[in-house]
Write a structure and sequence with these properties.
The protein has 2 domains: 176 residues, NAD(P)-binding Rossmann-like Domain (Rossmann fold, 3-Layer(aba) Sandwich); 143 residues, N-(1-d-carboxylethyl)-l-norvaline Dehydrogenase, domain 2. By secondary structure, the protein is an alpha/beta fold. It is globular, with a radius of gyration of 19 Å. Helix 8 runs parallel beside helix 11 and helix 9 packs antiparallel against helix 10. The protein binds nicotinamide-adenine-dinucleotide and SN-glycerol-3-phosphate. Nicotinamide-adenine-dinucleotide (NAD) binds next to helix 1. The site of nicotinamide-adenine-dinucleotide has 23 residues, from helix 1.
Length: 330
């Protein structure tokens, strides 16, 4: 199948490589021509996953027309902050029924829209849209280490289309009809991972990490339910699965950023050092829009927001969280 992958960061590269290795005709869009040149000639992405040799059949271009010519499926893997501009950029080159799966994790600033909703807003035709999410660090998928993921779509046929497309011996794909739940979980777990990383950075222990993860999961469930999603999604790969891997894995940028934050590194310093997105740093702000709209209290997300964007100290925020009135667990 002719597949277009939009975005050549770590996750775009790992997914494009997976799809090419399964025999698809894959062309990946990268912003920088020198990245395309390296992928096409040396089969290496010079900026992300640099130690991996990519499938020789994988091609790259910085020209949307070339990448999307004759495409039968579009895989979007840009940072969530530019999803609207990505949808607008691909619009002239696709048909009104081209299936699109969005693999980015986040919520739009200002509107509170989820990735699939942003694409619906720009391109219409909700039925051909899907979201892919789960405990999937690119560093492990590129090595073909077994992983599982969820493909959520409002239309089962679309979810099954992408389930078949991505399925590989080491990549197990599940379908779900709960797009809202899956995409909220995806955005939310990144925020919790920053809090866990920060706790470790402050010298706190595994009990603290577990407390943050478990209460973070409770917050996630409240928001999913309030927004019309299925709380059971929080118990699956998109929810607790991804929460666990992002809070505990050495590969997680969100967790590492939280840790570094506690050691005095700012968001700008961390991003300049790694060239990588830290989606949770944005999501702690954008999720607030959704939560306020639905009257949901999110103390952990609010704490992360106060530290990252409002200059609060970790110490003060930790004390305030622990000082909250005592209550029933559920
Ligand atoms: N890395 C992972 O393991 C992983 C796994 C699952 C989901 N995701 C999600 O996938 C999305 C992409 O993450 P990633 O890890 O591939 O990112 P990354 O940090 O590895 O790379 C970011 C990519 O975005 C590009 N970029 C940045 N600003 C841009 C702009 N203004 N216009 C065009 N391109 C721009 C960069 O050149 C780079 O290719 C995120 O939403 C992330 O949460 C990542
Ligand atoms: O490295 P992180 O923290 O951005 O997490 C990446 C993926 O979302 C894990 O599933």
């Amino acid at each position: 199948m002719k597949v277009s992958v939009i975005g050549a960061g770590s996750w775009g590269t790992a997914l494009a490589n997976l799809l090419a290795s399964q025999g698809n005709d894959v062309c990946m869009w990268a912003r920088k021509p020198e990245v395309c040149e390296s992928i096409n000639t040396r089969h290496v992405n010079p900026r992300y996953l640099v130690n991996s040799t990519l499938d020789e059949r994988l091609r790259a271009s910085s020209d949307f027309a070339e990448v999307l010519k004759g495409t039968e499926a579009v895989v979007v893997v840009t940072p969530s902050s530019i999803l609207r501009q990505t949808a607008e950029a691909i619009a002239p080159y696709i048909t009104s029924v081209t299936p699109i799966v969005i693999c980015s994790k986040g919520v739009e600033e200002g509107t509170g829209l989820l990735p699939v909703e942003i694409f619906e807003d720009v391109l219409g035709h909700l039925g051909r849209l899907a979201g892919l999410t789960g405990p999937n660090h690119a560093e492990e998928v590129i090595k073909a280490l077994p992983s599982g993921t969820v493909i959520a779509a409002f239309r089962l046929k679309t979810a099954k289309f992408f389930q078949e497309l991505f399925a590989a011996p080491y990549f197990r794909t599940y379908v779900s009809s709960d797009v809202i739940g899956a995409e909220i979980c995806a955005a939310y777990k990144n925020v919790v991972a920053i809090a866990v990383g920060a706790a470790y950075g402050m010298g706190l222990g595994d009990n603290t990490a577990s407390l943050i993860m478990t209460r973070g999961l409770a917050e996630m469930g409240r928001l999913v339910t309030a927004c019309g999603g299925n709380s059971m999604t929080c118990m699956g790969l998109a929810g607790v699965g991804d929460l666990e891997v992002t809070c505990m894995s050495e590969h997680s940028r969100n967790r590492t950023f939280g840790y570094r934050l506690a050691k005095g590194t700012t968001l700008e310093e961390y991003k300049a050092e790694t060239h990588m997105v830290v989606e949770g740093a944005v999501a702690c702000r954008t999720l607030h829009t959704l939560a306020s709209e639905h009257g949901v209290d999110l103390p952990i997300a609010q704490a992360v927001r106060a530290i990252v964007w409002e200059g609060a100290t970790l110490q003060d925020v930790a004390v305030a969280l622990l000082d909250r009135p005592l209550k029933a667990e559920f």
